[in-house]
Design brief:
heterodimer, A: 307 residues, alpha/beta, FAD/NAD(P)-binding domain, 2 domains, 7-stranded mixed sheet, 5-stranded parallel sheet, 6 helices, 17 strands, B: 84 residues, alpha+beta, Glutaredoxin, 4-stranded mixed sheet, 36% helix
């Protein structure tokens, strides 16, 4: 059995930063990730990470990764953690392929895109519906497209679609867009983007392909239809915590409850960082900062264990 | 003699999941034919007809079609067709 001081789970900004900090503390570190991607890798335009006024998410992640591999760290890419077991000293981490032991663990497994779970959503995936803007926006050249979700990701999707789509609808459940003010201004200045607030999406309709989105205006309760060729669903994320249920405390959203000073979880020796924890602001710089804090806390914890 | 497995991907340079699928196959030492839909937009229709949908990446292992980044399905198909 391979024994490490620290195992980091996740290959996004939180896990990568934790890896850099841990290896600089000379911890024998293993980073396991099911892929180097995270939510950052899906983003087409990042404008709020210092030092990079405008950068594509995958390019930023590539730079993070290049920085990581310059350090002394073992990386298992394309492996996924399925279980953590407590040992007398430390933990056993099981993936689908192997088992590893370590004194401490940092969970930075991030989050997956949420589905709406409404009528005909699955039926039209690939037939108009997509969750990956960078993959599929080009399929809607000169077509009408809707984006569901008025947060930063949704707003950025609507702006990106200006390159291809003829008309864009941006649907938001609340009575206002929740994205950054600069994005709001950009959207308001674009006549080809129509913002629809208070919209509860009810179903997708069509025959072979998506043709209509049905939504209810939440104040008047009136049912409306939008004719559209495509729809990008960008309504936020769900934490990847299935494999730690029952071992550490989670909040109602399934996020790992953390001590934000130390990034400790409810289980001694297990730390957390990034979108998977219960901090409300899901940002790249927050994830990176939490990755650093988690690695430094894990270092102090391991040092104490070894004394 | 075993016949060589034919592996083809329809992708585009901005597509994050396409990048992951290609990197995963290269990690396994597997060569593939790549059809870049930015370079060859006329191939989009062919891709849509073969996969009966519009999203990418579309990976074809012999006659098996895998849409998106689905590691387990890719592993299964690679094993089934003797590519790994």
């Amino acid at each position: 059995m391979e024994q490490y001081d620290l195992i980091i789970l996740g290959g996004g900004p939180a896990g990568i930063t934790a890896g850099i900090y841990a290896s600089r503390k000379k911890l024998k570190t293993l980073l396991i990730t099911k892929e180097f991607l995270g939510q950052v890798g899906l983003s087409w335009r990042i404008e709020n990470y210092p030092g990079f006024p405008k950068i594509n998410g995958r390019d930023l992640l590539k730079l993070f990764h290049n920085h990581l591999v310059q350090n002394e760290i073992t990386i298992q890419n394309y492996e996924e953690a399925i279980k953590i077991e407590k040992l007398n000293t430390g933990f056993k981490l099981k993936t689908k392929e192997k088992e590893y032991n370590s004194l401490a663990i940092i969970i930075a497994t991030g989050a997956e895109l949420k589905k709406l779970n409404i009528k005909n959503e699955d039926r039209f995936i690939g037939k108009g519906i997509s969750y990956c803007l960078t993959c599929d926006e080009k399929a809607f050249e000169n077509k009408k497209v809707a984006v569901i979700g008025g947060g930063n990701t949704g707003a950025e999707a609507a702006i990106s679609l200006l390159k291809f789509a003829s008309e864009i609808y941006l649907l938001e459940y609340l009575d206002h867009l929740t994205c950054d003010e600069v994005l709001k201004e950009e959207i308001e200045s674009q006549s080809r983007i129509q913002v629809i607030t208070n919209a509860e999406t009810l179903s997708f309709e069509g025959n072979e392909e998506l043709k209509k989105i049905v939504y209810q205006e939440r104040k008047t309760r009136k049912i409306h239809e939008i004719e559209t060729d495509g729809c990008f669903i960008q309504i936020g994320v769900m934490p990847n915590t299935e494999f730690v249920k029952g071992l550490i405390d989670l909040n109602k959203k399934g996020e790992i409850i953390s001590n934000l000073k130390t990034m400790e979880t409810s289980h001694k020796g297990i730390f957390v960082a990034g979108d998977v924890c219960d901090f409300p602001f899901k940002q790249i710089i927050v994830a990176a900062s939490q990755g650093a804090s988690a690695a430094l806390s894990a270092y102090l914890y391991i040092k104490e264990l070894n004394n | 003699m075993t016949e060589k497995v034919k592996i083809k991907i329809y992708s585009s340079p901005d597509c994050s999941y396409c990048y992951v699928v290609k990197d995963y196959l290269s990690h396994q030492g597997i060569e593939l034919e790549e059809i870049d839909l930015y370079e060859q937009p006329e191939k989009r229709q062919e891709m849509e007809e073969i996969s009966k949908q519009k999203n990418i990446p579309v990976l074809i292992i012999n006659d098996e079609i895998i849409i998106g980044w689905k590691k387990e399905k890719i592993d299964e198909a690679l094993k089934k067709h003797g590519a790994i």
